[in-house]
């Protein structure tokens, strides 16, 4: 990670950990920035003898939280999430997001949906005027439905591609055992709300990486180590 970028991510991570209070149930996001926050939370809990229960959004964050000494719950045992934190791949001026570079967006959305506060941790490189300009939109799909879902994405104006493994032959398999189609839009997503509804109405789509009107706060870490705090 470039040094300035790492410092920016760390600043955003530390900012959200300062918002966490003793006794809270906290949604633990996935990705490099959320991982920095999980590590910082574990350190603060040890230092201040704090009690927090984490609800992880992936096998990756579950394993990291365990290593960091953060006790874990599930939505069955800890359904009322006080604060969920997570990274994002893009954030527009309305605090709408694209997530899912790590293919964890379905669980991330489930955990964030019930949270009182959903705090996004990014650096400045993730800010865009229009969603879909830097990153493709990830769509989690039942394997037998890949062809019709790709046709649906083409009809929406996207160029869909099945995400392939890097250190595994064949498609990336999500924590749910499904596949991911990445949909690139030429000049960004013209109407994210239509894409959201159309995809959710398409059989075989589990969920997609558009997070519309969900973030309550965005912590933008700057290379200087400062944080710009955006609120809905
Ligand atoms: C994983 C995600 C991540 O939160 C998102 O990709 C940001 O990751 P990073 O903090 O590593 O840039 O959505 O599915």
What does this structure look like?
The strands form three sheets. A six-stranded mixed β-sheet has the order 2-1-3-6-12-13, with helices on both faces. A four-stranded antiparallel β-sheet has the order 8-9-7-10, covered by helices on one side. Strands 4-5-11 form a three-stranded antiparallel β-sheet, with no helix packed on it. It has two domains: 2-128 and 212-231, Rossmann fold, CATH 3.40.50; 137-208, 2-Layer Sandwich (Alpha-Beta Plaits), CATH 3.30.70.260. A hairpin with a 5-residue loop joins strand 12 (217-221) and strand 13 (227-231). It is an alpha/beta fold. 31% of the residues lie in helices and 25% in strands. The protein is globular. The two termini are 29 Å apart. The protein has six helices and 13 strands. The longest helix has 17 residues, at 3-19. Ribulose-5-phosphate (5RP) binds at residues 29-34, 86-89, 99-105, 108. Ribulose-5-phosphate (5RP) binds next to helix 2, strand 3 and helix 4.
Secondary-structure topology with pairs:
Layout: H1 3-19, E1 25-28, H2 32-48, E2 53-56, H3 59-67, E3 83-87, E4 90-91, E5 97-98, H4 105-113, E6 117-123, E7 137-141, H5 146-155, E8 158-162, E9 179-185, H6 192-200, E10 205-208, E11 210-211, E12 217-221, E13 227-231
Parallel strand pairs: 1-2, 1-3, 3-6, 6-12
Antiparallel strand pairs: 4-5, 5-11, 7-9, 7-10, 8-9, 12-13
Residues 29-34, 86-89, 99-105, 108 line the site of ribulose-5-phosphate.
């Amino acid at each position: 990670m470039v040094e300035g970028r790492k410092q920016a991510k760390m600043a955003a991570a530390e900012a959200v950990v300062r918002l966490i209070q003793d006794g809270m149930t906290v949604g633990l996001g996935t990705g490099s920035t959320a991982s920095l926050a999980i590590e910082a939370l574990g350190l603060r809990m040890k230092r201040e003898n704090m009690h927090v229960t984490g609800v992880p959004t992936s096998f990756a964050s579950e394993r990291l939280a365990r290593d960091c000494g953060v006790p874990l719950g599930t939505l069955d045992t800890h359904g009322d999430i006080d604060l969920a934190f997570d990274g994002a791949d893009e954030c527009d001026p309305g605090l709408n997001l694209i997530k899912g570079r790590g293919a964890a967006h379905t669980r991330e959305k489930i955990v964030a949906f019930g949270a009182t506060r959903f705090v996004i941790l990014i650096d400045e490189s993730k800010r865009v005027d229009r969603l879909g300009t830097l990153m493709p939109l990830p769509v989690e799909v039942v394997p037998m439905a890949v062809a019709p879902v790709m046709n649906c994405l083409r009809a929406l104006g996207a160029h869909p591609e099945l995400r392939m493994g890097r250190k595994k032959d064949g498609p990336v398999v999500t924590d749910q055992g499904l596949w991911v189609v990445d949909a690139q839009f030429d000049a960004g997503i013209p109407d994210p709300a239509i894409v959201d509804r159309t995809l959710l109405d398409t059989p075989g789509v589990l969920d997609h990486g558009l997070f519309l009107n969900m973030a309550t706060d965005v912590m933008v870490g700057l290379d200087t180590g400062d944080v710009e705090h955006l609120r809905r």
